[in-house]
Amino acid sequence: MEEIRCYGCGAILQSDDVKKIGYVPKSSLNKDHVLCKRCFRMKNYHELQETPLTKDDFLRILQYIGEKDCLVVYVIDLFDFNGSMVTGLNRHIGGNDILVLANKRDILPKSLKDYPIEMWVRRQLKEYGIYPKGVVITSSIKNYNFDTIFDTIQKLRKGRDVYVVGVTNVGKSTFINALLKNYTQDHDMMITTSEFPGTTLDLIEIPFDEHSSLFDSPGIINEDQFAHIIPVQLLDKILPKSEVRPINYVIDPNQSFYIGGLARVDFLSGKQQSWQFYFSKNLKIHRTKLEKADDLYNRHKTLTPELEEIKTVDQMKKYHHKVNKNQDIVISGLGFIRVNDQCEIDVYVPDKVSVFIRESLI
Ligand code: GDP
Predict the structure, then answer these.
(1) pTM, two decimal places
(2) Cβ(47)–Cβ(39) below 8 Å
């Protein structure tokens, strides 16, 4: 039988096993653009069906790419840099050349120039042992720097195939769709995108010419992404959609901040200083005195009932950090606070969410 692929995710369609990738009822198979059940439900009802892609599958795909001589295009999310990291990427892809597309630039302040962002990305990547041949700052929803991306891909691939990789939710599908719209005649090949992680399954091929193609690979939810712990409908609410406007606070020790019902940051010691909060505007920042902070959460849970299962703040995990001037307190996947002086802090977050300190992005 001729192999038919899902118009959404590229999976080979089958009508034998409803639990397996690419399932579609037999009656839908002869339609023009067939979507598998999973893509159909996601597109029409915004409903996420559990992705069957395991970490082992993901590593297998990377290893497969590692066996080719190709250019790897690695899409990352500028707003969730460490959630975008694939540990050991370089090793898995066999040292192939990497072009990094640093996506969602539109979420960072417009006033920031691209060059310092690129330098920051390169320094951060170095810590993960990734030395890309190129870094392009982009925004897939704005087609930002697309000509540069296309030119750079052509320059770096030297006639070879290109594999696009990345964890879920970094905007890889949006990028591929935009690429198709802008650079090919064949709009029918568009793949679906969604708010939810786990969109793309299987490799999808977009030919450059008779000898080489661009392949889109499926992503996986990284353990460091908030997507890992939060119900998908909430994810949409807590991730910023457009330019994040920082909220500035001049603060004194023994003050505490709630960021929605999802995180709490206590300023324990340090001089009076200013902190800039970079979070989705849907997450209300609430300042209180440290001594009142427990009560505020425990008694009223006023802030946002994001995580129903967390009833009191003691159920959250606590991190202690010493922070230096011009560093960010990063609450992985949620956002960050830019700190302008030395301080000592405690951060409370749901279990599995990481908190760390890094060189300031802004
Ligand atoms: P994938 O899982 O990596 O394929 O990610 P998607 O393409 O499905 O995108 C995940 C979410 O990020 C969706 O809500 C997209 O609309 C959003 N997104 C993708 N690219 C951008 C971008 O450049 N800027 C912003 N603000 N959002 C983006």
Answers:
(1) 0.82
(2) no
